[in-house]
Amino acid sequence: MKLILRLTVNVFALIVVSYLVKGFEFDSLFAAIVTAIVIGIVNTFIKPVLQILFLPLSIVTLGITAFLINVLLLWSVSFIVSGFHINSFLTAIIASVVLTFVSMFLNKLSDNN
């Protein structure tokens, strides 16, 4: 049940970002759902490996590398999922920041504690 709630929150966050950020687009609701699933898989399996590999560089750059890893992973998902489009790298940067804040806000709202 918690997984379904988290997926729903993530899909809603992606849809909110698509309304707020020009160039961050979905062709359908199904594309948003698939994108949320793929982002979840990427963040679970690929992101930790990249963060460990680039930890020294991330320390030297005071976390900018960790931020860029998030941006690159989000942008790469747009190449994997058909129906999800990010027009430019700058759009991916802006969308990553907005998605972080929208997701944090929605996750706080959905917490039952």
TrEMBL record:
Keywords: Membrane, Transmembrane, Transmembrane helix. The keyword Transmembrane applies. It holds the Pfam family Phage_holin_4_2. The keyword Zinc-finger does not apply. The chain crosses the membrane at residues 28-46, 53-78, 84-106. Coiled coil: none annotated. This is Integral membrane protein. It comes from Candidatus Woesebacteria bacterium GW2011_GWD1_38_10.
